[in-house]
Amino acid sequence: MDWTRILTNVVGELVAPTTAAYALAAIGLNVHFGLTGLLNFGQAGFMLLGAYGFAISTIAGWPIWAALLVAIACAVVFGLVLGIPTLKLRGDYLAIVTIAAAEIVRIIGRSTALTDLTGASSGLRGNSYKESFQALSPFPDGNTAIGPLEYSNNSSNSWWIRIVGWVLVALACLLVWRLKNSPWGRVLKGIREDEDAVRSLGKNVYAYKMQALVLGGVIGAVAGIIYVLPRAVQPDSMGRPMTFFVWTILLLGGAATVFGPVLGSMIFWGALLLIKSVMRSTVPAEVMGTQQIEQFGWIVVGVTLMLLVIFRPQGMLGDKKELAINAH
Amino acid sequence: MRPHVTTDRSSRTGAVLLALLLAALATLGALPGSAAPARAAIAECMADASTGCVNGTLRTAAGEPAVGVAVTVEGPAGEVTVTSGPEGRWSAPVDEAGDYTVTLDESTLPPGQTLRDPAGNPRVVTVRLGAAAGALFPLGPPADGAGEGPDAPAPDPGDESVDTGGAGGEPGLDTSATGSTSGGGVTWERVAQQALAGIVFGTLLALASIGLSLIFGTTGLSNFAHGEQVTLGGIMAYLGVQTLGLPLVVAGALAVVVAGASGWLQDKFLWHPLRSRRVGMTQQLIVTIGLAIALQYTYQFFFGASSLRIVTATPESIRFGGVFITRTSLVSVIIAAVVLAGVAYFLVATRTGRATRAVSDNPALAAASGISVERIIRIVWTFGAALAGLGGVLMGLYLNATAWNMGGTLLLLMFAAVTLGGLGTAFGALVGSLVIGLLVEMSNLVIPSDMRYAGALVVLILILLFRPQGILGRAERIG
Amino acid sequence: MPTDRSHRQPDEAGAPTTHGATAVAVPSRADELRDRFAGLDRVPGVPKPDPIVVADHVTRHFGGMTAVDVDHLEVERGAITALIGPNGAGKTTLFNLLTGFDKPSTGTWTFEGRSLSGTPAAKVSRSGMVRTFQLTKALSRMTVIENMRLGATGQPGENLGAALIPGLWRSREREITAQAEELLARFKLDTKRDDFAGSLSGGQRKLLEMARALMSKPTMVMLDEPMAGVNPALTQSLLGHIQSLRDEGTTVLFVEHDMHMVRHISDWVVVMAEGRIVAEGPPQSVMNDQAVIDAYLGAHHGTDLGDDSLLDEAEPAPGATDTTPEGTR
User: How far apart are CA B398 and CA B310, in angstroms?
Assistant: First the structure.
């Protein structure tokens, strides 16, 4: 077994753009669930909309800041549309509506009726929209090696996207930290505990929930952009499994904590790669094929999610006394 | 109330219900040629002095061969059904010259495929002995709006995991569609055909949804892993027929028993302990999601990501006036209706059934009036899972294939159905399922077929927008 | 209706009152109210000299059942009004309606002359009518002080934008914290300041919930069964707090099953049965009203309304109970 190669890959995975994108998406979900107690099972929908909004407007020739605004606007509108009917209802209705709405986005995105816009199920190729982002890079072309990791400076899977991704993660953490420790965050926490009590104290619960839903959704949309910049916009890779992985990441790190989503994402992707790499080099192909090892990895994810929620619902960084998962 | 008396009764009712399920399954025997070898049908017809051939090649709009499509040729020599082979080629031998009616079973088309010219199906060809007559059925977007059969859930492995993010792609019932743009050409015949498809789909959906609804009613849990019970039924039937070579009836019955047992085991070893530990509902809901992920990939681990055909023989079509239904669908819907009637009888007329409704209505009150709530919940899990399993078997037959994610793609439709009908009530689930089934199939008439599930989900959101009180049941008292 | 504000206690309502204030207020406020109510008819819906809440034709149906059917109700400003009645009389439902937590089938009502019908709960609270709940809603995974801070109004940091800039809300936060600490001291919860609310006893949670409601300095508090589940040792202290609220000029409307409490601290009693108001009057007379006995004892036969034996004191005069909180603690 080539441990050096495996460990290098795992370290690479820890800082990969995908890891950053998932961390960012989980930070958004943390605003929903960790801070406010909203059961959003449509985070992938926000991400997909962000990705479409960015890619389609860039392809249409808009500058990168305008494309970013379009992505954010998509998330805001989506959040409002979801929130208006459901934020007054019981929590699990929001769960069903958000999961359904994210599916609607995906189904419409992959529909042949919109092929010209979204490329249907084959999606939008990365090269068609990533140029404006790469043009912003201050680095010269070429490759750079830092320690064992070597990536190109600017093209698809580059240092540039890694730097932007992780800077955004850091900014989002700062934002969540600031909000969580503000009176605004206190109201959200009260809503998470018992929204009727907060209502009886004169706070407009509906407005607060809506703000949280939209804010977390916007962070999700930005995560979607980071996710698709090194690859392509493929609606089918941004469906329900993606939402569930974001949930696993959040609960792994610890809901309602500032760094939980970041730690969760790194451990999730790092451990998954480690398990799969080790199995590939130790389990004979007759026992488990490559594809089966891949599937085995996802089975481990599902079982981990179950065990985590049952035995350590506060996650790695959470405090059990301040458990974010509501009792009812 | 003396507990052992109740237990006796309930186990008897349970046995009766199980017998009913099995009896209903026995009628599956009426289905054609269960595990009949598919190769015979694919064998090329050679025209000679005493044989004539009808043949053709089916290609999808994208130019790929359309495999496994059923074509029935009917005429003076009787009736023969063949399926298209790996190259999309099909051919049927006949031993008498004359005019033959060639019918393509649209429900066996690859997912998302439609006939470019629905009016050309069925068509009549003249066959001479010693020669081959062609019958071409071009696929693609219809010129004037096409009817379309139910899609098979055939996940396309090429769609997924190429992407390093690893969020496994989720091609499902709505997969890789070269969807038809419809609109225009809405004829009464098409409306009737789609309505029939909707009723069949809705009835099968109801079997799957009842457990979801009753589990919610009795425990308050939104079970996101219920779809995997449906898949389990389909896959077990596949395993029984294709791997173990059992007759379809036996395999189907076995699948239902396995699904029921899995429900019992799940409640015994997972949900009951969680309830005892007073694990919150939100936590339990997330546990169901973890379970759904684990089960889906377990199915994929053992059975792969491609679609699995429980029965490879091609079903025959039956014609009622202007509408077609395959014999499989007809028998499936009859079985489903019989079982649903049995469930209704159970809920209304038996002691355990009434207790189930009482628990679903108000668990605390039911417990106070001497009903053993945990026992009822165990029964609901077992039979809910068994019904879902039966739904999976029949859905797998109706859709012509099952797959690791069949239940997952149906899950949201089930949620839509039970939400529409009123969460927690069995009869609501039945009505809701029929409405959703009709909605999904009828929406084909006005929106592109690859968007029809989106239509049903939009309706789900609209219900919540306009009738939240109705679906919430009672308004909760505050304070 | 005359809305004469002079009835409020100008001298005591102004300054925040601490421990000793209740004892000083003893004779004046309760006696004055007794005199004021003495001349009123003891019939359902009787007009009050200075009503703060006026409700008309309020009904609420659940399916075929009528939970509330109140033709006319006035609540006097600055007094302690008790709402009593057997289980299922519609008391809590009426509370929910008045505070915007439920929507009526018909009816209108005003609070300080402004219509509140159809107003959302949060807005009702901001207008000065704050409620507590029968089952306490202490936010159990927040600390006691955080619970209190949440009750305050006028914190600019509760806006998303302002929350990002601490300079905009830090000074207000200090004021709020000082106010919260003062109230906690008054409710003898100051030692629990940094504990999670979930770790408090049932009675302490009731106290916390009431203290939290006072953070917004409401003109009227609505208490839904403040004594339910409270340990008898805390009962006296709660009674004292309610009376001192009244003595500071706050209107109190409370739902209660405990007849001793009703008799000892309320200035006026409204009796509900089967959704309707069946009697009104001062506590002493209403307990003897035949309609009340019928309505009430139908359900609780053998209960002696207003039996003093459980209240551990010799002096039955209403004013005297005011001194007990200090005495017993």
Answer: 10
Given phi > 0 = left and psi -120 to 50 = alpha, else beta, which region is A279? alpha
Q: Are B259 and B248 in contact (CB under 8 A)?
A: no
Task: Judge: A236–B178 Cβ closer than 8 Å, yes or no.
Answer: no
User: Which residues make beta-bridge pairs with B127?
Assistant: B98
Q: Where in chain B is the domain with CATH 1.10.3470?
A: 10-30+191-466
CA distance B13 to B26: 20
Residues B146 and A150: their CA atoms lie apart, in Å, by: 54
Per-residue pLDDT of chain A (328 residues; tens, 9 = 90+): 688 889 999 999 999 999 999 999 999 999 999 999 999 999 999 999 999 999 999 999 999 999 999 999 999 999 998 888 778 777 777 888 898 899 999 999 988 888 888 887 788 888 889 888 988 888 888 888 888 888 888 887 889 999 999 999 999 999 999 999 999 999 999 999 999 999 999 999 999 999 999 999 999 999 999 999 998 898 988 998 999 999 999 999 998 899 999 999 999 999 999 999 998 888 888 888 888 898 999 999 999 999 998 998 888 888 877 776 655 4
Alpha helices in chain A (DSSP H): 3-14, 17-29, 36, 43-59, 64-86, 91-110, 115-118, 131-135, 159-180, 183-193, 195-200, 205-228, 240-253, 260-282, 290-311
Encode burial over B295-310: b for 16+ CB neighbours within 10 A, e otherwise. Answer: bbbbbbbebbbebbbb
Which residue in this structure is represented by tokens 């909004």? A53
Give contacts of A190 with chain C, Cβ < 8 Å.
139, 142, 150
User: How far apart (Å, rounded) are the C-alpha atoms in residues A242 and B184?
Assistant: 37
CATH for B10-30+191-466, options being 3.30.70, 1.20.120, 1.10.3470, 1.10.1060: 1.10.3470
Domain with CATH 2.60.40.10 in chain B: 52-145+156-185
The answer as to CATH 2.60.40.10 being correct for domain B52-145+156-185 is: yes
Question: What's the ipTM?
Answer: 0.89
- What predicted TM-score, i.e. pTM, was given to this entire model? 0.78
Phi, psi of C74, deg, nearest 5: -125, 140
Transcribe A16-38 into DSSP letters. Answer: -HHHHHHHHHHHHHIIIIIIH--
- Taking each helix axis as running N to C, give the angle between helix A290-311 and helix A240-253, from 0 to 180 degrees, rounded to the nearest 10: 50
Average pLDDT over residues C136-149: 91
**Nearest-neighbour CA in chain C from A183: distance (Å):** 5
User: pLDDT by residue (tens digit) across A10-42?
Assistant: 999 999 999 999 999 999 999 999 999 999 999
Q: Which residues of C touch A (CB under 8 A)?
A: 99, 101, 120-123, 125-126, 130-133, 137-142, 146, 149-151, 153, 155, 157-160, 162-164, 166, 169, 173, 196, 209, 212-213, 215-216
Residues of chain A found within 8 Å of residue B412, distances taken between Cβ atoms: 96, 99-100, 103
CB atoms near residue B341 (< 10 Å): 12
Find where tokens 């010799």 sit: C314
Better-predicted residue by pLDDT, C305 or B384: B384
Residue type, B100: Y
Please give the backbone phi and psi of residue C130, each rounded to the nearest 5 degrees, phi first. Answer: -115, 140
If you write DSSP's letter for every residue of A174-239 in order, what string do you get?
Answer: HHHHHHHTSHHHHHHHHHHH-HHHHHHTT--HHHHHHHHHHHHHHHHHHHHHHHHTTS-B-GGGSS
Question: pLDDT tens digits for B192-207?
Answer: 888 998 999 999 999 9
Measured between CB atoms, which of B474, B475, B479 is closest to C134?
Answer: B479
